[in-house]
Specification:
Strand content: 15-25%
Number of domains: 2
Number of strands: 8
CATH class of the largest domain: Alpha Beta
Number of helices: 14
CATH topology of the largest domain: 2-enoyl-CoA Hydratase, Chain A, domain 1
Helix content: 40-55%
Shape: globular
CATH superfamily of the largest domain: 2-enoyl-CoA Hydratase, Chain A, domain 1
CATH architecture of the largest domain: Alpha-Beta Complex
Distance between the termini: 52 Å
Order of helices and strands: HHHHEEEHHEHHEHEEHHHEHH
Radius of gyration: 21 Å
Structural class: alpha/beta
């Protein structure tokens, strides 16, 4: 397992032992299934133990893993006839957000998502998945197009947050995010959002005001990163573990708060250990929710969406 996290090292050692035994057995023509079987069972048990008891900060590390499936990976696996559309018709194209027309579950849809890079060159081109205002305006253009044609919208959320640079602020980063929220609240077409990795602040929310918000088991969704929170509250980024705990950013926390509607389980070892299984699970859950939403009258869909978000954060005094 390349690019392993610290807490995954015991798993790597066992995997190496198994690979070594299998290689030696092949070289010598030996049958070693009976010897390898107990080690493989031990590996599976250890994987379940480690991933069943991750701390919030470890969840953050998993959500950021470079081998997790990204938006384009889901598009290639779950959608057909994808035609990417670029540009916001105002300034330029932003590669940190990708989107276009496609077919999902035999239905025309518009799919949009944050896109990170696998290596330094691609990360620089895609700005590490942090969109500029033109990225959000491109997404807005595509969502409005989907609504005009009555096509469902599916978004994938995976960003540390909107890019906070001077140029982005000069071109209206906050206004672009706010406009997306305002527009998504009133679109008369089904919207499904899936948090697949990092769900960072308004940069994530700008694609996530949906009828159904789904979240992978080891993804995170928060108003700020643990490092940023620690730097602001305690003037010490090393307090990130403490901040991650306080932010309630895990899928279970966010589901309990009513911010997401369903958690999609990940394979043992998380999404980066079995990307194909993860993508299949996401596709099955999206298809189920899309069928449910397609039965709802568009105007009732908007009313239900408004009610859903108006009720968030409400409380009763005892």
């Amino acid at each position: 397992m390349a690019l392993a996290l610290d807490f995954e090292k015991p798993l790597i050692e066992l995997e190496r032992q198994i690979a070594h035994l299998k290689r030696r057995a092949r070289e010598r023509g030996l049958e070693v299934d009976s010897e390898i079987g107990p080690i493989e069972r031990k590996l599976e048990d250890l994987r379940q133990e480690i991933y069943g008891d991750l701390t919030p900060m470890q969840r953050v590390q998993v959500a950021r893993h470079v081998r997790r499936p990204y938006t384009l990976d889901y598009i290639r696996s779950l959608f057909t006839d994808f035609v990417e559309l670029k540009g916001d018709r105002l300034f330029r194209d932003d590669p940190a957000i990708v989107g276009g027309w496609a077919r999902f579950d035999e239905r025309p849809v518009v799919v949009i998502g944050h896109q990170k890079g696998r290596d330094t060159k691609e990360n620089l081109r895609r700005n590490f998945g942090m969109p500029h205002p033109e990225g959000y305006r491109k997404a807005l253009r595509l969502m409005q197009m989907a609504s005009r044609f009555g096509a469902p919208i599916i978004t994938f959320i995976d960003t540390p947050g909107a890019y906070p640079g001077l140029g982005a602020e000069e071109r209206g980063q906050a206004e672009a995010i706010a406009r997306n929220l305002e527009t998504m609240a009133s679109l008369e077409t089904p919207i499904i959002a899936v948090v697949i990795g990092e769900g960072g602040s308004g940069g994530a929310l700008a694609l996530a005001m949906a009828d159904r918000v789904l979240m992978l088991q080891h993804a995170i969704y928060s108003v700020i990163s643990p490092e940023g929170c620690a730097a602001i509250l305690w003037n010490d980024a090393s307090q990130k573990e403490r901040a991650a705990e306080a932010l309630k950013l895990t899928a279970e926390d966010v589901l309990e708060l009513g911010v997401v509607d369903e958690i999609i389980p990940e394979p043992p070892g998380a999404a980066h250990s079995d990307a194909d299984a993860t993508k299949r699970a996401v596709g099955e859950v999206m298809a189920r929710h899309l069928k449910e939403l397609a039965k709802i009258n568009p105007k009732k869909l908007v009313q239900s969406r408004a009610k859903k978000y108006m009720e968030m954060g409400s409380f009763t005094e005892r």
